[in-house]
């Protein structure tokens, strides 16, 4: 599987390292806010074998406060510029704001990751103009309230239906289908049962015939299952990444790059000997 604009192909699973430059993200909030701290963390993830880094300046954890455009720009643009100047690794911008999508690609980002699936006014046009690949993620509701009482008729069918509609809207707005990736959005307006059904039935997303990106790393569904706080969720996170890859995920979005890369090496050796 090949996505134009991505420097790596998706014939094997790829690892996206998470780099939050927010003061309030749920697991590493505040630790990488300064430019130097962000670069140090990026350097580490590059050395550990990440294929792409995902830079976010607005926390989307349940209950998180919204961030102004100026603030989000000030957080992420200097980091993207420095990463682009320093490393070969591609960078993805995690934002829902069209102005930032444009500015981030101008600063060197080569992918857009939008938890709102380009639903903000002007987002499809911004993505179309940049010409970079886009990950469309499903969310029910908005971060402030999404965990209150999420409801679905059939969580998998509903989300496949939603993503199919967003794909059609993107194509109609000039974003080529071949540049799209999809993501069911674990934890975004989902109960534990919804999240488990999504992982169990992840293969059904192959109906959309688009590369699947999945983020479960350190999420609260793993805390609910194991009873562990966020800093002790590495084993469950790696297991979840492997289970997602087994069921067709092509990019896993993770905090713990080294451990995930090891797991992917094992998966590749078993599934594609010689690859
Ligand atoms: C996701 C994301 C995810 C995509 C976040 C966290 C919460 N983008 N951004 N998929 N999660 N595509 O890092 O746990 O699951 S923010």
Question: How would you describe the overall organization of this protein?
Answer:
This protein is of the alpha/beta class and 275 residues long. The chain has helices at residues 35-47, 69-86, 98-106, 123-130, 155-172, 192-200, 220-226, 234-246, 257-271; strands at residues 14-20, 52-56, 91-94, 111-114, 134-137, 180-183, 213-214, 251-254. It has an 8-stranded parallel sheet with strand order 6-5-4-3-2-1-8-7. Strand 5 (134-137), helix 5 (155-172) and strand 6 form a beta-alpha-beta unit. The mean pLDDT is 94. The site of ligand 7PJ has 14 residues, from strand 5.
What is the CATH domain class?
Alpha Beta
**Strands across the major sheet, in which order?**
6-5-4-3-2-1-8-7
Provide the CATH architecture: Alpha-Beta Barrel
Number of helices: 9
Structural class: alpha/beta
Number of DSSP E strands: 8
SSE string, helices as H and strands as E: EHEHEHEHEHEHEHHEH
Task: Compute the separation of the termini in Å.
Answer: 15 Å
- Low-pLDDT stretches are none
Write a compact overview of the structure shown.
The chain is α/β, with parallel strands linked by helices and 275 residues long.
Essential attributes:
single chain; 275 residues; alpha/beta; TIM Barrel; eight-stranded parallel β-sheet; binds ligand 7PJ
Could you outline the blueprint of secondary structure elements for this entry?
Elements: E1 14-20, H1 35-47, E2 52-56, H2 69-86, E3 91-94, H3 98-106, E4 111-114, H4 123-130, E5 134-137, H5 155-172, E6 180-183, H6 192-200, E7 213-214, H7 220-226, H8 234-246, E8 251-254, H9 257-271
The protein binds ligand 7PJ.
The site of ligand 7PJ has 14 residues, from β5.
């Amino acid at each position: 599987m090949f996505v134009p604009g991505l420097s790596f192909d998706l014939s094997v699973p790829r690892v996206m390292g998470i780099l939050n430059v927010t003061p309030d993200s749920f697991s590493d909030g505040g630790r990488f806010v300064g430019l130097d701290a962000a670069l140090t963390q990026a350097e580490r993830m590059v050395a550990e074998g990440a294929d792409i880094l995902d830079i976010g300046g607005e926390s989307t954890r349940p209950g998180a406060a919204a961030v102004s455009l100026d603030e989000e720009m000030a957080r992420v643009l200097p980091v993207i510029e420095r990463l682009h100047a320093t490393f070969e690794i591609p960078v993805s911008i995690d934002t829902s704001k069209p102005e930032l999508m444009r500015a981030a690609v101008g600063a060197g980002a080569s992918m857009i990751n939008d938890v709102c699936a380009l639903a903000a006014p002007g987002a499809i046009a911004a993505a179309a103009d940049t010409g970079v690949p886009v990950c469309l993620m499903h969310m029910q509701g908005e971060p402030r309230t999404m965990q209150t009482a999420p409801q679905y008729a059939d969580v998998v069918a509903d989300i496949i239906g939603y993503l199919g509609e967003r794909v059609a809207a993107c194509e109609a707005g000039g974003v080529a289908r071949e540049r799209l990736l999809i993501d069911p959005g674990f934890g975004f307006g989902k109960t534990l049962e919804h999240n488990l059904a999504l992982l169990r039935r992840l293969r059904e997303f192959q109906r959309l015939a688009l590369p699947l990106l999945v983020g479960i790393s350190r999420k609260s569904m793993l805390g609910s299952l194991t009873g562990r706080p966020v800093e002790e969720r590495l084993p469950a996170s790696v297991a979840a990444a492997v289970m997602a890859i087994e069921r067709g995920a092509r990019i896993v979005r993770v905090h713990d790059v080294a451990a995930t890369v090891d797991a992917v090496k094992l998966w590749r050796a078993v599934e594609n000997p010689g690859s």
